[in-house]
Design goal:
The protein is built from 12 helices and 9 strands. By secondary structure, the protein is of the alpha/beta class. It folds into 2 domains: 200 residues, 2-enoyl-CoA Hydratase, Chain A, domain 1, CATH 3.90.226; 47 residues. The strands form 2 sheets. A 6-stranded mixed sheet has the order 1-2-3-4-6-9, with helices on both faces. It has a 3-stranded mixed sheet with strand order 5-7-8. Helix 2 packs parallel to helix 4, helix 6 packs across helix 7 and helix 10 runs antiparallel to helix 11. It starts with a helix and ends in a 10-residue tail after the last helix.
Length: 262
């Protein structure tokens, strides 16, 4: 089976849809899949027509993490053991730093490496009954693609320790209350909830989306004075953009804007 069968990429108007496609293995991830995912991210970043990325799993499950058969055969006790962390972290960092917003749609198991992909996305929308958690500690493993530096910034230190040290799984509804996901919905309403959510992203200026996302992400570890400078610079750049001029003109002329992404 080609790796393109294990991880699939579709264009749907302004939306890029990436699918994990190993439902018989709960969409567990392999290194070749990570390399292919890296290629897809490059393709998406280079396509100005694509404005939002949706990541999802076939077979009503997101991803249960790295393929443990592959981990045992190729990496445990090997000099290449760190390679898993390096490639996983590279791909998750690329998700986190994308210029376009990403949305993880969570069903079934969202654990270990699948959990790391989820927390690297800008948004997460869950089925109420999804099972979401770090899980590594249950197998005496350690996640190398973001939990110790993304989770505390997302949900705080105490909740991070609760998830990582217990290996507990949260339902989608519990994860929403935990501030781990943006929205949770019953399975029958999940697709409609996702499409409604992304409709509020695809109609915005691609230029301003990129700038605002970058300012928020880069501002997490900055002091207040630096953040004020960053905001002032962002305003200056914005007011010299074609999309800002179009946005103001469209409002005054009572019409829909036509974004160019510049």
């Amino acid at each position: 089976m080609a790796v393109e069968d294990d991880i699939q990429f579709e264009r749907d108007g302004h939306v890029a849809r990436i699918w994990f496609n190993r439902p018989h293995k709960r969409n567990c991830i392999t290194v070749p899949m990570l390399h292919k995912l890296d290629e897809y991210i490059t393709e998406i970043e280079g396509d100005p027509e694509l404005r939002v990325v949706v990541v999802r799993g076939r077979g009503n499950t997101f991803s249960s993490g790295f393929d443990l058969d592959s981990l045992q055969a190729d990496f445990i006790g090997s000099s290449t053991a760190m390679d898993v962390a390096v490639v996983s972290a590279k791909v998750c960092d690329r998700f986190y730093n994308m210029s376009k917003p990403s949305v993880a749609v969570l069903e079934g198991y969202v654990t270990a490496g699948g959990f790391e992909v989820m927390i690297s996305c800008d948004f997460a929308i869950a089925d109420d009954s999804a099972q979401i958690g770090d899980f590594h500690i249950r197998r005496a493993l350690f996640g190398g693609a973001g939990p110790i530096y993304r989770l505390p910034r997302m949900i705080g230190i105490r909740k991070t320790k609760e998830l990582m040290l217990t290996g507990k799984l949260l339902s989608g509804a519990e994860a929403a209350a935990f501030d781990l996901v943006n929205l949770s919905a019953p399975a029958a309403e999940l697709d409609a909830t996702v499409e409604e959510f992304i409709s509020h992203l695809t109609d915005k200026s691609p230029f301003q989306m990129k700038l605002t996302k970058m300012a928020i992400d880069r501002g997490l570890d900055a002091d207040i004075a630096s953040l004020m400078v960053l905001e002032h610079l962002a305003v200056g750049v914005t007011l010299n953009s074609d999309d800002a001029a179009e946005g103001v003109a469209a409002f005054l002329e009572k019409r829909d804007p036509k974004w160019t992404g510049r």
